[in-house]
Structures are given as structure tokens and as C-alpha cells.
Write a structure and sequence with these properties.
The complex is a heterodimer.
Chain A: H1 3-48
Chain B: H1 2-27, H2 41-68, H3 73-108, H4 117-138, H5 144-156, H6 158-168, H7 189-232
Helix pairs in contact in B: 1-7, 2-3, 2-5, 2-7, 3-4, 3-7, 4-5, 4-6
The chains are: A mainly alpha, B mainly alpha.
Chain lengths: 49, 240
Amino acid sequence: MDQRDILDHQFVTAAYVVTWTIQLAYLAWLGWKWRSEKRNAERRSRETQ
Amino acid sequence: MKKAAITLFPLITILLMIWGYYQAIYVAPNDAMQGEVSRIFYYHVPHAMLCFAFFAVSLVGSIGYLSYRRARPALAQVSDALALAGAEVGVVYCTIVLLTGPLWGRRAWGIWWTWDARLTTTLVLWLIYVSYLLLRRFAAGPQMQTLAAVLGIFGALDVPIVYMSNRWWRTQHPAPVFGGGPDSGIKDPAMLAAFGWNVLAWFCWGLLVLFLRYHVERRHQQYAELEAEAALGGLDPEGI
């Protein structure tokens, strides 16, 4: 592997890591938001009982 | 049936993501001119195509909200949730396009960024939808949803401009992969398969997060409605 191949490999890795990090972070944020909305709904239903 | 579909769809999506990754990294051959760095194509281009699709969902939702907001408020709320979900998933996909593009460009062209038509119009599209999300996050009052819907429609006008930019103007960005003339298209079947699998995988992933975001927003709308009813009825929504 020459210097050019190593650099190419690093750039491909960086692009794939960036993609997965953003997508998984967004999914985690959605999960957190889902839980928080669910907690709100449960609290609301307890109050109305 | 519905429960089985809800369990099965994420599973199929995960399998498609793994298969798409395997195809892109281990099966598809290196590009003869660019070498290994051309593998960024299998993530960059599907995200670019799909961000257009999610902004189109946002456009449909925004038009729906403006059409139904007086006559059918319940349907207008559904449309509004869809518009928000489409815009947010579209911004996530567009962000990835704007980050993976410069990584590819640095190796292929020797520069991170250039103010050419395709790159600039994509950045403008991203900025419009980020403003849409900021408006939804920080504006308050009954007009917020209407203003957001109008901005969502105006934002979607940039999508065909981005799509046509490297046809209308001579740009640094390469010619379109599909529909860009007699020389366009992917000639190698293994490359075409890897590209197709990744489009399918990221499409399913996008549908999954769109579905989640839509339901989160619907829950939020229902909670806000109950809070408003409680406030009107003289009850404290926090139950103090």
C-alpha cells in the first residue's frame, strides 16, 4: 500500500464513520424524545384519573 | 399483523444496512480513475437522492396543513407532523451529503469546497430547512405552523434547482450519474448492485426514522392539546 492508498482508505473510513455517527445520534435523540413524550402522556393520564 | 410488521421492518432494515455496507466495501470494485476513495459514492449519492424524497414529504405535509387547517383541523395536525418529520429527516440526510461530499472532493479534486452551482444550491437548501426547524423550535403562537408550512413550500422550490444545477451550469461537481447524457450511468454490474442495495437500505432506514419522528410529534401534539384543554378548564397541566 502506498501513501495515496492509505489516504484514500482513511477518507473512505472518515465518510462512513461520519454517516453512521450522525444517523445513530439522530436515532438516539429520537428514542430519548419518544421516552420523554411517553412520560408526559403517563403523567397526564395519572392526573386525570 | 401490525405488531409483526413493526418488529420485522427494523430487522429487515438492519440486514439491508449490513448487506449494503458489505457490497460497498467488499464486493464493488475500485473505480479505475479514483481508486478506493470512490467508495464514498455508495453513501454520498443515496443520501443526496433520499434527502430530496424527504423534503418532498415535507412539501406534501406543508401543503396539506395549509389546505386543511380551517376545514379539517385534525387532518391538518397530521399533515403538520408529517411536514416536520420530513424536514427533519431531510436535514439529517442533507447534512451527511454536505459532510461526505467535501471528504470525497478533497481526494478527487484536491479541494474541500468550491462555490460551484451544485454545492452552493445544496448548502442553500440545507440552510432553508435548518431555518424551518429553528422556526418550529423557537417561534411560539398560533401562526407558527402556518409560517413553517409556507417556509417548507418555499424551501422545496430549491430542490429542482439543486437537481438541475449540474445540467444548467458547468460545474466542478461531476455530471449526473443517471439521466445526464449518453455517457451517464453505472457500467459495472457490481457497482450498480452495490449502489442499488445502499439506496434501498438508506431508504428503509429513512422510513424508519420518519415513522418514529412522526409519532413523536403526534404524541407531542396530543399532549399540547390536553395541556391547552386543562388550561382552558382552569386546571394546572402540571397537576399542582
